[in-house]
Amino acid sequence: MAKPIEFNLFAPYNKGAALIGSFSDWQEIPMEKGNDGYFRTSVELKDGVYKYKFRVQSNSWFFEPEQWVDVTDPYATDIDELSGKDDSVIHVKDCERITDTYVWQNDDKPLPADHELVIYELHVGDFSGGEDDPYARGKYKHVIEKLDYLSELGINAIELMPLKEYPGDYSWGYNPRHFFATESSYGSTAELKKLIDECHGRGIRVIIDGIYNHSEASAPLTQIDHDYWYHHEPRDPDNNWGPEFNYEHYDEKLEIHPARKFIGETIRFWIQEYHLDGIRYDAARQIANYDFMHWIVQEAKNTAGAKPFYNVAEHIPETTSITNVDGPMDGCWHDSFYHCILEHICGDTFDLERLKDVIDCKRQGFLGATNVVNYLTNHDHNHIMVELGNREIFDEEAFRRAKLGVAILMTAVGVPLIWMGEEFGEYKPKQPESSKIDWTLLGNDLNRSLFESYKGLTNLRKSNHALYTENIDFIHENPEAKVLAYTRWNDEGSRVVVIANFSENFLAGYHVPNFPSAGTWHEWTGNYDVESGDDGIITDLGPYEAKVFVWQ
Q1: H or E element that contains 228
Q2: Looking at residue 134, what is its pLDDT?
Q3: Which sites are catalytic (predicted)?
Q4: Which of 245, 318, 407, 502 fits 546 for a cystine, CB–CB 3.0-4.6 Å?
Q5: What pLDDT digit, counting tens, does each position of 267-277 carry?
Q6: Complete DSSP assignment for 146-188
Q7: Which of residues 394, 428, 463 is at a domain's end?
């Protein structure tokens, strides 16, 4: 049985448009334009899968005036990339247009709140498979195979690098061409849903990396009417990755902001269709429009409904204005934390005030624990092992410093983020080509021991809610010995003290006087108890070592 299925194309200032597809032998089916700016036509279709495109008289300045061009549907949820033609694909079932037939299983499972998050950033293509794997992998289903590992590590959110369909089979995804379609080389839309569903079943939230600053150069909207949706040319040529959405442009006739309309529809679709729990907004500094960001964050939260939804800006260098009282975002990437901690564990510098500023983001003007996302590295930077190796620091010495880094990461004020492989000392330099994680490293004692440090400290966060707060006091500082100590606490009696030695000296019998309370403390990293008297505690501090004391 066939029923009419509507095809529509929003192109308000284009003169003509037609539909072509496998259902018409690629012959033109005329489309009528309504007063709302949409071209429409209906086609009788039985259940099945069909390919189609729109043929439009383009208004883009790089074509001849009113030249006819064939464009992919900007709203297509599936793209046939293999043909090289980027055909839009429509799935019809029970006489309705559908994305897929996936049935969600775990929507009722409780998920952690924003302040409880430990985020794991991964690239689907590079996360699975590797040296010990005879199969070329890197798909959603292979991430599912690693969820037991991630649960053991103790993370409770994954941040997926961009998933929107990009040209070719390998990319970091910051060149999205099709905003409603998922990257086909990673698997089907149903397989992505299964990954998200399996995460939810384990209490893991899923955040996606969203690109709303720009699109890839030949994205459909650029072909239809470039300057209706985009700035005519880059505003900052040094930081330009493709045509930039123009969120200022207002269409008075239709009373809409065209770029906002499109991106709003994109975000609502992804949250409804894929049950997401948060978005990282790439290049927020280049978007440079707080008005738009306020609106889009509100759209995202309204769509997500009652469940927690975390909106994080990548605004580099960071600024408090993007996340404080009147700022649009819940949090932002804390890039000064990365630079400062890296320089200190590498021994490049020692600056107590800078250290205190990044460990307690309130000193920089941030308001609370969810306003910053801290990291020792991310996809944009080398792994710590590479940075240490570049300074001729290797083996046990390097792993010791990495452990110092993770102790600070997991106990500083803010939400910690781990870049894939960092937790066991992956050492490949950052590169644009495919760079699979080397899972065989986990077979080495040093790598496994670093993994255990990460695991222990992620679990400390879950068991000790002092680390969920913005409460922090710096109780001891010694610039000569390069030692800093701080305490974290909450109102329920949880307490943690961190003592960090940023020098290459072994400090035997080191005295930290003003401990928060006398009594028994448990040293978390080494698993032993220490008594604190009224005059504090005495402990041995290894070179580049942090001790983490937990009130019993």
Answers
A1: helix 220-229
A2: 78
A3: 282, 314
A4: 407
A5: 999 999 999 99
A6: THHHHHHHT--EEEEPP-EE-SSS---S-S-SEEEEE-GGG--
A7: 463
Shared domain check, 528 and 453: no
Q: Which of 282, 360, 387, 423 is catalytic?
A: 282
Is residue 345 helix, strand or coil?
helix
Instruction: Verify that 459 and 493 share a domain, yes or no.
Output: no
Active site residue 282: yes
Q: CB neighbours of 403 closer than 8 A, spacing ≥ 6? A: 450, 453, 525, 545, 546
Whether residues 166 and 252 share a domain: the answer is yes
The single residue of 114, 225, 314, 387 carrying the catalytic annotation is 314
Instruction: Give the tens place of pLDDT for each residue, 92-115.
Output: 999 999 999 999 999 999 999 999
pLDDT of 81 higher than 90? no
Domain total for the chain?
A: 3
Structure tokens belonging to residue 546: 């942090």
Residue 453 included in any domain: yes
Contact criterion met (CB below 8 Å) for 316 and 335: yes
Residue 129 has pLDDT above 90, yes or no: no
Residue 346's SS3 state is coil
For the CA atoms of the chain, what is the radius of gyration? 26
Q: What's the chain's average pLDDT? A: 96
Parallel/antiparallel/unpaired status of strands 310-313 and 331-333: parallel
- Helix locations, 412-543, DSSP H: 445-463
473-483 pLDDT, tens per residue? 999 999 999 99
* Distance in angstroms between the alpha carbons of the first and the last residue of the chain: 70
Stretch 253-280: mean pLDDT, rounded?
Answer: 98
Do 29 and 93 lie in one domain? The reply is yes
Say how far apart CA 466 and CA 60 lie, in whole Å.
Answer: 56
Tokens of 178: 């099709």
Statement: residue 131 has pLDDT above 80 = no
Quick check: 399 and 356 in contact, CB under 8 A?
no
Distances (CA, A) of 447 to 50, 172, 294, 450, 452: 50, 26, 43, 5, 9
Q: Which of 422, 437, 343, 317 is nearest to 377 (CA)?
A: 422
Same domain for 263 and 196, yes or no, is: yes
What span, in angstroms and rounded, lies between the C-alpha atoms of 438 and 424?
A: 10
pLDDT band (50, 70, 90) for residue 330: very high
Domain region containing 141: 114-463
- Say which CATH number the domain at 510 has: 2.60.40.1180
Q: What is the CATH number of the domain that holds 68?
A: 2.60.40.10
Q: Tell me the per-residue pLDDT of 134-143, one tens digit each, with 9 for 90 and over.
A: 778 899 999 9
Q: Which of 50, 73, 98 is the last residue of a domain?
A: 98
Q: Does residue 531 belong to any structural domain of this protein?
A: yes
Asked whether residue 454 is domain-assigned, the answer is: yes
Residue 104 maps to a domain:
no
Categorize the per-residue pLDDT at 88 as very low, low, confident or very high, splitting at 50, 70 and 90: very high
Whether residues 384 and 449 fall in one domain: yes
Whole-angstrom CA distances from 415 to 116, 321, 341, 467 are 8, 18, 15, 10
- pLDDT, residue 229, reads 98
Q: Reply yes or no on whether the pLDDT at 430 is more than 80.
A: yes
Longest dimension (CA), the chain: 87
